[in-house]
């Protein structure tokens, strides 16, 4: 009898455990410094459990009318190095922001950032690009409830292309526990 009560308690506790997203690194690599500059690209830790990402990109050649934001965006899982896990496609940001239902997978990713990102309108862009305080909470619900991902280490890699020239690469590293 003690075994079955203990087993039920353990099963209840396991059922109560849920996955958690944690940021482990954030990298911004500029490929064309004459086109844009990064004022800041940081992961900030407020305490042991609360971290957020912030980014500010200064555009030097405005207005920008041809953008493929998150072009060749991909999600990579760490398994003996980072291996492609989900998608690796190119999306025209100007067209997507005009009709967000045109690309459902990109819309799933865009939801993570749209409330903290000033690139939430269609082209042209005549201002700096700012993304402030993306918390793991923004991502946690989508990666654990809406489209559950297996536990592990992931890298979300975005190539930012303007006028068919790769201008920057952004990498967000997360752990799903």
From TrEMBL:
Highest classification ranks of the organism: Eukaryota, Metazoa, Ecdysozoa, Arthropoda, Hexapoda
UniProt entry keywords in alphabetical sequence: Signal
Domain of life assignment: Eukaryota
Protein's UniProt name: MD-2-related lipid-recognition domain-containing protein
The organism of origin for this protein: Drosophila erecta (Fruit fly)
PANTHER family: DAEDALUS ON 3-RELATED (PTHR20898:SF0), DAEDALUS ON 3-RELATED-RELATED (PTHR20898)
Signal peptide: 1-19
């Amino acid at each position: 009898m003690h075994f079955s009560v203990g087993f039920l308690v353990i099963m209840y506790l396991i059922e109560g455990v849920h996955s958690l997203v944690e940021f482990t690194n954030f990298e911004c690599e500029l490929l064309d410094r004459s086109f844009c500059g990064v004022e800041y690209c940081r992961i900030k830790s407020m305490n042991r459990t609360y971290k957020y990402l912030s980014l500010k990109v200064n555009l030097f050649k405005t207005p920008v009318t041809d953008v493929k934001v998150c072009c060749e965006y991909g999600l990579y899982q760490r398994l003996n190095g980072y291996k492609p896990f989900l998608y690796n496609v190119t999306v025209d940001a100007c067209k997507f922001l005009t009709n967000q239902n045109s690309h459902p997978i990109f819309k799933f990713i865009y939801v993570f950032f749209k409330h903290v990102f000033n690139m939430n309108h269609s082209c042209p862009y005549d201002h700096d690009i700012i993304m402030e305080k993306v918390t793991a909470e923004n991502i946690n619900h989508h990666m654990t409830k809406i489209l559950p991902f297996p536990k592990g280490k992931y890298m979300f890699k975005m190539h930012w292309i303007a006028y068919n020239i790769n201008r920057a690469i952004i990498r967000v590293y997360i752990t799903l526990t």
